Amino acid sequence: MTVILPSLVLVLICLLQAGAEVPIQLDFDAEKFAGMWHVAAIVSNCSMFPKMRDEMKSSTITISFTPEGDLAAKLIWPLVDQCQEFELLFQHSGQAGHYRGTSQEKKDLHVMETDYGHYAIVHELQYDEEKPQTSLQLLTREQEVTPQLLHKFEELIPTMGLTMDMLAILPKSGEC
Prior knowledge:
Layout: H1 4-19, H2 30-33, E1 35-44, H3 49-53, E2 59-65, E3 71-78, E4 83-92, E5 98-101, E6 107-114, E7 119-126, E8 133-140, H4 147-156, E9 167-169
């Protein structure tokens, strides 16, 4: 019985984490959220992430919203020898601050927390046949990140089932 009880507790914790809902910014205001952000830090369980993490630099993402309420993102990512541009569209889920990828991209995007003027913490879940991939991104309006803000971000990492060894604090980049 003493061996079974800890095992049951671990199973229950895993089930609770898998079923837990991601918190969303209360009274999310898309108009205030729109604009340019810097990707300052990322934590991810994606299998490709550890290989890419050391090469990554801070990128910019410009957020806008369609008349239908969908989130459009233009991401400019500095690579070794060029700037890569991505355009993403997330459909409004019906809940403010929660967006879903198009039918080809099985993704959920949640704006967990933001003060609109300085920072935002965004949670992304990509559904895969093998295993869901989770990431948290710390977005900032300026490239500078305060230690307090970084600490706040780091505190969320274990609550999303991620670990500190999955964290990349992206160096500033004047490129792109």
